[in-house]
Design brief:
The complex is a heterotetramer of chains A (513), B (100), C (703) and D (176). By secondary structure, chain A is mainly α. Chain A contains 21 helices and 2 strands. Chain A folds into 2 domains: 1-192, no CATH class; 273-513, no CATH class. A two-stranded antiparallel sheet of chain A has the order 1-2. In chain A, helix 14 (329-360) packs antiparallel against helix 20. Chain B is mainly alpha-helical. Chain D is built from 8 helices and no strands. Chain D is globular and about 55 Å long. The chains are: A mainly alpha (513), B mainly alpha (100), C mainly alpha (703), D mainly alpha (176). Chains in contact: A-C, B-C, B-D, C-D. Chains B and D meet through helix 1, helix 2 and helix 3 of B and helix 1, helix 2, helix 3, helix 4 and helix 6 of D.
């Protein structure tokens, strides 16, 4: 039973305690249900803070895996499957992002979810378990279980509490992700059987996969992750899922679930298949750039705010992928930070959209207009979050986007991964995305808040944000400014791990040129 | 010294008697008691084997069997009470709704 | 804490972060407590914040006088990844302090002016609750601009660069729910958006220049970059050229040069103090500052200088031609600003950094003066309009007020204001003479220095700039005659009233500066104080001797232009509804000037509409119809359904079902027999269990 | 023939006799009482086998708790006259099967165990309940916990099953 007492196990499974409490509450006790879920998720957040910063068990200067919990689990037929949890600089920010966003998302459902509150909270806490599990699992098999497990609560969150077309969206989300995962499962089995172990660090240490096999495995893993990210052109499920999902679902979907894809690339594809990663980098880089421009252009055309934000995710995650596959320190660090940034600002955008939707029950841009006059706090917060999303210097988005672009540009230099495949053009075109981001964000802001009063603004008695809503957004805003002005603590957390991660690539690139 | 086979034969006899009880009685309560008898017979064999193999496993199994038996009796008797309430009888030959 | 980090030997340098903190504190106070402070309180807080920044700037200048080498004050680390090392660090040297003084000095005056201006403006626009917001934005602008001019690396400069863009966006869109005439409209917010996006295009250039800089020179820090640039220029001159060209794109965005100047005229949608502060005196000069700051890079290649100088000169002339054809008092000034920025960019492009910066300073004075004067005129007309409406209005005033689209900024509605608004008139005259380049006003000295440099090194620039200077004097003359002379062409102008002291006092101070500002850098031996001041930063500077020829020609041109404008606009003053006297002689040319050479329309056609169409095509056709609806919902889903149907009908019904029917028949037959076994008696089931047990035991026994 | 063996035979006789008695008893109460005696005799066998803890558990759980439960239920549903329940014509198959089982069992024991296997001599250790507890709470802790849950579930199940359906009061109220 010791495995349950490991710090990371506690972090991962502590939401289950809340689930247990929820089971004993009646469906009618809505307040109690909400408070239970909120308090549980807050406790989980505190535990995660404790585990990483106050327990003394985690040393940020160490680039390797820490807080290791390693137990034998399934040892049959020569398979070596372990219960293996650990965290390092690549995952710590994402774990914290998950535990941080969950209470915020729960808080946002306070008045938005009135039906089947109990089931909602249950699924939400279960979802949190799955998400944290994905980020801490170091055994491929365990990872796969967590990975697939997240699908189920999300499926129900969309399918039960979603918009009018929720079933279509939920099924599409489920099938799309499943389809990618199947290939990954095959690759996992191949690795586990041929490598003699499912533990990622061991497999990385062995590292004797021939280059052509690597490429196949890379593609199989990438299939699952690219759909989740989602990379262009596999993004078709995203607008449906986002538009139909309830606000809290959208927040978590954008904030954390998409990061599982990018994290997958970072944790599995890069270290396990370094040669294949270098080979595939230009392709992924170009897909990312197309995604950046395409997502920005398409979101500019949207009339539905949620759809606009959803497509902007395609653009933002294009930046993340571009930075990651620049395979240099600036690019990867920027990519990880941008994952967090996207979680914060897009999460906040979804929250804001949800807050106004609760009052107006429409997300149609043309019926808004002139809102800033009536709801100044709401307008100002949306402006700040929007600016963060479009990368205004001084806010978090800029730090991520700038370092990514800088990294991508450096990868176009003569010894970088993009050197033979477009060079500076990748970063140059991606930088155009910065202009396009300004266009769609300002378009959205203008159509909602500026200009003369629109239909909704005229005919509804709209209220500004209340204290609970401000409280929901405040933590996000704090981090938006913090990361923008003083990102050092965040970079410090990830840099040692990034240096470890990039070590093999220098040799490979040296050999290639 | 008693050879262990004596205990085992006794256990077999008790078990057979229990089985006989299940087969020949119609009263659900008595059938239940017969089942308890069979469980006891099995327990006896367990404990006997404990002495042969010099390990606690047999005793511990008996312990678990008792716990399970207690649970089984609780549920079973509750069922009987419920059946009696609806049928005013515990004659199992009258309970033939499973007839094909 | 902040004080400790500075070198204690160097006086007030440690205070420099307060040029940013002071306005930030001001904006926070006003943002959170603005409603409670009342209008005067808000204005006071904001002005004090700007004033504090000015005070700190003065202290910097005092310290610099003793330690001209300046200092770098590090506040903290920002982004450190690998070799990338970006800090929050402030650079105090003569160049940055010059900018600080201009920004905070002019800024403070405009803050004070704005207290009076906005108090009336919010009432004309019927939304007094918006008053505090204006000062929040204004302080935000000061803070961002201070970051821009004081940053010690290109990225920190960029923070300010985008920050002022944001402030500009917010202030242009301050009356976001109406147009410049106060009618409900998207116009102002469109103008704001246009400004931000155009600036972003420039920022894109800036970013690319930054990337080149980092990967070829290894740093963003000014000293490190400048140290490495000459070496790179020898190895890869093309990289330096690219860097400067991309930087020029950034400059074109921020300083409104061709081809990105289009946002600035629209930016006049913002309240007049904004036009004065941001879109004339300070923000738009950021590009000039950037080039001056990057002098060690721009000076490396003649090609870079040539391109920059030409862009500046062409912009100067081009914008001046448009200014001639405008009727809106602020639009004329806006195009004049673009034109003057062209002068400055041309100057710094030629390597005449002192001349460029000199013109920047004097221009800040007189253009701020002109804009504020124009604001005063507009307010005067608004008052007059109200006055007239109250006296004449038969029936409902409000109705009258709303139906008539009176444009207080249209010069065709003015005339004869010399008598009704005397203070405004006199200060405006000072500004006009300074801008026109009349001896001994400030503009004369600075413009003359630019022309002198051009005549020595870039003759083509000299000719273009001279033409622009001629037009400058002409359109300013035209404006003055139309606004202040002749007789009123509208009843509002008849009843116009002079502005209160809170407005006129800043005007008078600015007028004094515009008149005397030129004396900081007289082009005679033994003077050149401003040049020597900047020499500490820019290195040794060549001071060409004062040329009577150049000065004489430019003065003659200016006087000639004013005379020409007198002939056209004053000898026979414009009547109400009469067409511009230039329209006939110039014909199509004037139509072009009037309509800004149709550049906006061209951009609309070339960029905006195609992007709209492309976005629509991608979103609707490609992403939705093709990819989402057709490919996913039709091909994938229907393909799956089709496959399922195939499996269901021929395969399943035809084959498997047949087999299964047969099987089921067989099973049913056997079940008929077997069901007899189901007696329903529990004991018979038990019996069969025992039978099974017995069988197993038997097997064990026989095995 | 040792004393132990004599004791064994006596007890075996009692056990078999009470089992048969239970089988043939006309009344459920008698059957239950026969069974109690049977359980007690089996408990004594446990003592003979050096398993005191099990023996006492046997008495507490079987003879005590379980049989009391039986008696309670018998009281609850009333005494049923079981006379005539045993229909000798129906008994052929059960008897045959019981006999087969018995024969097979005995033969299996003889075949597999043999008559000369004696009980080991280290019984003192096996009889120590504290040692047993140690094994129970280390190696078998998970089954132990699961058993606890099982008991809880059984308890809840029994409560739910034997709870009377509440009559629909509201309807009656309306009609009344």
């Amino acid at each position: 039973m010791n495995f349950l007492l490991e710090p990371l196990s506690i972090v991962t499974f502590s939401p289950l305690l809340g689930v247990l409490v929820l089971l004993f509450l009646k469906s009618e006790q809505k307040a109690a249900l909400r408070w239970t879920a909120l308090v549980t998720s807050l406790i989980t957040f505190l535990i995660s803070l404790w585990a990483f910063f106050f327990s003394g068990l985690y040393n940020p200067a160490n680039g390797g895996l820490q807080l290791v919990a390693k137990y034998n689990w399934i040892n049959v037929a020569g398979w070596d499957i372990r219960y293996y949890l650990a965290a390092d600089g690549l995952s710590i920010l994402l774990i914290l992002l998950t535990t941080f966003l969950t209470p915020i998302a729960i808080l946002s459902t306070w008045t938005a979810v009135e039906e089947r509150v109990k089931d909602f909270m249950l699924f939400f806490l279960l979802l949190e378990v799955g998400m944290i599990g994905v980020f801490v699992a170091q055994d491929l098999f365990l990872f796969y279980i967590f990975w697939e497990f997240t699908l189920i609560p999300m499926y129900f969150l969309i399918g039960i509490w979603g918009g009018p077309n929720r079933l279509y969206a939920a099924v599409k989300f489920f099938l799309y992700t499943m389809a990618g995962s199947i290939l990954m499962l095959l690759a996992i089995l191949w690795l586990g059987i041929n490598g003699g172990t499912f533990s990622v660090p061991d497999l990385v240490a062995q590292g004797n996969i021939p280059a052509d096999t690597q490429l196949w495995l890379f593609i199989a893993f990438a299939a699952a992750f690219a759909i989740k990210v989602p990379m262009w052109p596999l993004h078709s499920w995203l607008p449906d899922a986002h538009v139909e999902a309830p606000t809290a679902g959208s927040v978590i979907l954008a904030g954390v679930l998409l990061k599982m894809g990018t994290y997958g690339f970072l944790r599995f594809n890069l270290p396990l298949f370094p040669e294949a990663s270098v080979q595939a980098a230009p392709v992924i880089g170009w897909l990312a750039v197309i995604g950046i421009l395409y997502g920005a252009a398409v979101s500019f055309y949207q009339k539905d705010v949620k759809k606009l934000v959803a497509y902007s995710s395609v653009s933002h995650l294009g930046f993340v992928m571009l930075g990651m596959f620049a395979l240099n320190a600036q690019g990867v660090a920027g990519a990880i930070l941008q994952m967090v940034n996207h979680g914060l600002s897009t999460g906040a955008l979804f929250l804001l959209v949800g807050m106004i939707y609760e009052q107006t029950h429409t997300r149609d841009l043309p019926v808004y207009g002139g809102l800033w006059k009536i709801t100044p706090i709401f307008g100002t917060l949306t402006l700040i979050v929007g600016l963060s999303s479009m990368g205004l210097p001084g806010l978090n988005g800029f730090v991520g986007e700038f370092t990514i672009l800088l990294g991508a540009f450096g990868a176009g230099m003569k010894d970088g991964v993009f050197a033979g495949a477009g060079g500076f053009w990748l970063a140059g075109l991606a930088a155009v995305g910065v202009i396009l981001a300004a266009i769609y964000i300002l378009y959205m802001f203008q159509k909602m808040f500026l200009g003369p009063a629109g239909e909704i603004t005229k005919h509804h008695d709209l209220k500004d944000l209340n204290w609970r809503e401000i409280l929901t957004l405040l933590p996000l805003l704090v981090f938006i400014f913090w990361i923008g002005l003083y990102p050092k603590p965040f970079f410090d957390l990830m840099m040692p791990a990034i240096e470890n991660l990039l070590m093999p690539f220098q040799a490979i690139l040296m050999a290639a040129h | 010294m008693v050879p262990v086979s004596y205990y085992l034969i006794l256990s077999a006899i008790l078990f057979s008697l229990g089985a006989l009880g299940v087969l020949m009685r119609r009263n659900a309560l008595v059938i239940f008691m017969s089942i308890e008898l069979m469980l006891n017979a099995a327990n006896l064999a367990f404990v006997a084997f404990t002495r042969v193999h010099e390990t606690f496993s047999g005793q511990i199994f008996v312990f678990f069997v008792m716990a399970v038996a207690a649970a089984e009796v609780a549920v079973g008797l509750a069922l009987i009470v419920t059946i009696y309430r609806s049928r005013q009888s515990v004659d199992i030959d009258q309970l033939s709704s499973l007839k094909g | 804490m902040l004080l400790n980090e500075a070198n204690p030997a160097t006086g007030f340098f440690g205070l420099v972060p307060w040029i940013v903190f002071a306005p930030v504190i001001g904006l926070l106070i006003n943002a959170f407590f603005g409603k409670r402070l009342g209008e005067t309180g808000v204005g006071l807080v904001a002005s004090l914040a700007a004033g504090a920044a000015f005070l700190v700037s003065v202290l910097q200048a005092v310290s610099l006088a003793q330690h001209p080498e300046g200092a770098i004050v590090k506040l903290g680390e920002w982004i450190h990844i690998g070799q990338l090392a970006l800090d929050w660090a402030f650079r105090v040297d003569t160049l940055s302090v010059t900018m600080m003084l201009v920004v905070s000095g002019v800024g403070t005056l405009i803050h004070i002016y704005a207290i009076g201006y906005m108090r009336e403006d919010v009432r004309f626009k019927n939304d007094p609750a918006r008053f505090p917001r204006f000062f929040v934005f204004l302080n935000l602008f000061i803070a961002a601009m201070m970051i821009l001019v004081s940053g010690d690396n290109y990225l920190m400069l960029f923070v300010g660069w985008e920050g002022v863009g944001l402030a500009s966006f917010l202030l242009i869109g301050f009356w976001y729910d109406m147009d410049t005439l106060g009618r409900p409209s998207w116009a102002n917010s469109n103008a704001a958006k246009k400004a931000f996006i155009t600036n972003r295009v420039g920022d894109f250039g800036f970013l690319i220049a930054g990337f080149l800089m980092f990967w070829y020179l290894g740093s963003f820090q000014f000293d490190a970059v400048f140290a490495g640039a000459p070496g790179l220029a020898k190895l890869h001159p093309e990289i330096i050229l690219l860097m400067t060209v991309f930087m020029l794109i950034g400059v074109a965005g921020k300083s409104a040069q061709i081809p990105l100047y289009v946002w600035l005229p629209d930016a006049m949608a913002g309240p007049t103090p904004v036009s004065a502060l941001i879109h004339a005196a300070t923000m738009v000069t950021a590009g000039v500052y950037l080039i001056a700051r990057s002098a060690p890079i721009f000076g490396l290649l003649h090609d870079s200088q040539y391109i920059v100088a030409t862009v500046g000169a062409v912009t100067a002339l081009f914008a001046a031609t448009i200014a001639v054809g405008q009727y809106d008092i602020k639009k004329v000034l806006a195009y004049s600003t673009i034109s003057q920025l062209g002068f400055m960019v041309a100057a710094v492009g030629m390597g005449a950094y002192v001349a460029g910066m000199f013109h920047l300073v004097t221009h800040a004075f007189f253009k701020a003066l002109l804009f504020l004067g124009a604001g005063s005129v507009i307010l005067g007309l608004e008052r007059g309009h109200h006055h007239a409406a109250h006296h004449h209005g038969h029936g409902s005033h409000a109705e009258n007020h709303h139906e008539e689209t009176f444009d207080p900024g249209d010069m065709r509605n003015m005339g004869g204001l010399r008598k009704t608004m005397p203070v405004t008139f006199w200060v405006y005259m000072v500004g006009t003479l300074a801008l026109g380049g009349i001896f001994p006003f400030a503009g004369f000295w600075s413009k003359d220095e630019i022309l002198l440099d051009a005549s020595l090194h870039f003759p083509h620039v000299y000719w273009i700039l001279s033409a622009a200077a001629f037009l400058t004097a002409f359109y300013m003359g035209r404006q003055v005659w139309m606004v202040f002379f002749g007789k009123a062409r509208h009843e509002a102008a008849e009843h116009a009233e002079e502005s209160p002291l809170v407005i006129t006092i800043p005007l008078i101070i600015l007028a004094a500066l515009s008149a005397l500002g030129g004396f900081i850098n007289l082009p005679f031996k033994g003077f050149h104080q401003f040049g020597h001041w900047l020499e500490h930063t820019l290195g040794a500077i060549e001071f060409p001797p004062f040329s009577l020829a150049v000065a004489g020609v430019s003065t003659l041109l200016a006087l000639g232009a004013i005379a020409l404008s007198w002939l056209l606009y004053q000898r026979k003053p414009l009547e109400h509804g009469q067409a511009d006297p230039l329209a006939k002689p110039l014909g199509l040319l004037f139509v072009g000037m009037e309509n800004k050479w149709f550049i906006d329309e061209a951009y609309q056609f070339l960029f905006v509409q195609p992007y709209h169409a492309l976005a629509g095509f991608l979103a609707q056709k490609v992403d939705w119809d093709f990819w989402h609806e057709w490919f996913h919902d039709s091909v994938l889903v229907q393909g799956f359904v089709g496959l399922a149907r195939f499996l269901a009908n021929p395969v399943d019904l035809g084959l498997i079902d047949r087999v299964s029917y047969w099987l089921s028949d067989a099973i049913r037959a056997s079940a008929e027999g077997l069901r007899k076994l189901q007696t329903g008696f529990v004991r018979s089931y038990a019996l069969s269990v025992v039978l099974g047990v017995a069988a197993i035991l038997g097997y064990l026994l026989l095995k | 023939m040792s004393l132990e063996l004599i004791l064994f035979f006596i007890l075996a006789a009692i056990a078999i006799a009470t089992a048969i008695g239970m089988l043939l008893s006309r009344s459920a109460v008698y059957a239950a009482l026969y069974l109690v005696v049977n359980f007690v005799s089996v408990a004594i066998f446990y003592l003979l086998l050096d398993a005191p803890f099990i023996a006492l558990s046997q008495i507490a759980v079987y003879a005590g708790a379980i049989m009391v439960l039986f008696l309670f239920v018998i009281m609850l549903i009333g005494l049923e006259n079981l006379a005539g329940e045993l229909n000798w014509r129906q008994l052929a198959w059960p008897l045959v099967m019981g006999a087969i089982l018995l024969v097979e069992g005995v033969f299996l024991v003889i075949q597999r165990v043999g008559q000369d296997v004696y009980i080991g001599q280290t019984g003192t250790q096996l009889s120590d309940p504290s040692l047993m507890a140690k094994v129970l709470f280390t190696d078998y802790v998970l089954p132990f916990q699961i058993t606890a849950v099982l008991l809880l579930v059984a308890m809840i199940g029994a409560i739910v099953l034997s709870k009377r359906e509440k009559p629909a009061l509201s309807n009656q109220g309306k009609e009344a």
